[in-house]
């Protein structure tokens, strides 16, 4: 009998201990951790968009519209360059910190990179007169070739704004030479092309003129993993100047794959939109 009473006492004691445990309150509100907000810090630095060979207002029209619709930037000005190099403008630079975009259109859209670089000089001289001290440049195809030639041809010119960032999309920097048959991409990026065009040789001579603080983004397209071109420009050509420029500048490269990486589709590719916008206007 005493054993039975002892067991009962122990059970009651254990039950009492269990009753002292705090139970979860189902009505209690869970503490919500504050989310870290991502902020796009906009500036008043204009970005010029330069079309390629035989390009028109439609060449960058879609990208500019998408960037504006996404509230990443604001298209404020169109600079149209005549065959003689004179410039007419549509719109006005507001001076607001809205990441202003400027579309550059060459009426003689099949002229040489030398002429285009001179016309770009004229555009930037006009912007400097408007009080613009620094700009970014984005060029597709020949627009990228002309943009780089411009930056190397007019060093330390007081009539020109500073170039902060430069983006080249599918630009044939080594003309249309394709070195992929005897050179892998890692070697190209490290050492430069094994075969060089006269255009690339010009870059080699002028590279020392490039402002060292300009940040550079080189983008290339490939239809698939085994087709080393965007149907027009060899991947090795679009990335050919990496080894040359990285000696003094910060250079980033990326290859896009698939049908939307076709040459004329690169500036319609939303992945390219994102890469370009993240590079030009990074979020904090």
From TrEMBL:
Q: Does the keyword Lipid metabolism apply?
A: no
Any one Gene Ontology MF annotation carried by this entry is: hydrolase activity
Q: Which region is the signal sequence?
A: 1-18
Q: Would I find DNA-binding among this entry's keywords? A: no
Please report a single Pfam family linked to this protein.
DUF915
User: Sorted alphabetically, which keywords does the UniProt record give?
Assistant: Hydrolase, Signal
Q: Would you tell me the protein name for this molecule? A: Alpha/beta fold hydrolase
């Amino acid at each position: 009998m005493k054993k039975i009473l002892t067991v009962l006492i122990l059970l009651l004691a254990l039950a009492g201990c269990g009753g002292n445990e705090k139970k979860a309150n189902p009505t209690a509100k869970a503490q919500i951790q504050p989310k870290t907000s991502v902020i796009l810090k906009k500036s008043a630095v204009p970005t010029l968009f330069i079309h390629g060979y035989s390009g028109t207002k439609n060449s960058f029209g879609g990208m500019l519209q998408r960037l504006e619709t996404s509230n990443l930037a604001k298209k404020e000005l169109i600079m149209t360059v005549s065959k003689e190099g004179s410039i007419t403008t549509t719109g006005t630079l507001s001076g607001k910190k809205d990441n202003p975009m400027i579309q550059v259109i060459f009426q003689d859209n099949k002229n040489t990179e030398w002429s285009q670089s001179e016309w770009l000089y004229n555009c930037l001289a006009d912007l400097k007169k408007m009080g613009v001290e620094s700009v970014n440049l984005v060029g597709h195809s020949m627009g990228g070739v002309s943009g780089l030639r411009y930056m190397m041809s007019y060093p330390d010119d007081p009539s020109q704004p500073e170039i902060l960032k430069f983006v080249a999309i599918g630009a044939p920097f080594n003309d249309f030479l394709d070195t992929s048959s005897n050179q892998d991409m890692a070697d190209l990026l490290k050492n430069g092309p094994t075969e060089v065009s006269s255009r690339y040789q010009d870059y080699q001579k002028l590279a020392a003129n490039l402002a060292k603080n300009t940040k550079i983004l080189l983008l290339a397209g490939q239809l698939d993993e085994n087709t080393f071109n965007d149907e027009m420009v060899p991947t090795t050509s679009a990335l050919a100047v990496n080894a040359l420029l990285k000696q003094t500048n910060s250079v980033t490269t990326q290859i896009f794959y698939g049908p939307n990486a076709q040459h004329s589709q690169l500036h319609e590719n939303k992945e390219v939109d994102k890469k370009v916008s993240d590079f030009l206007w990074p979020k904090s």
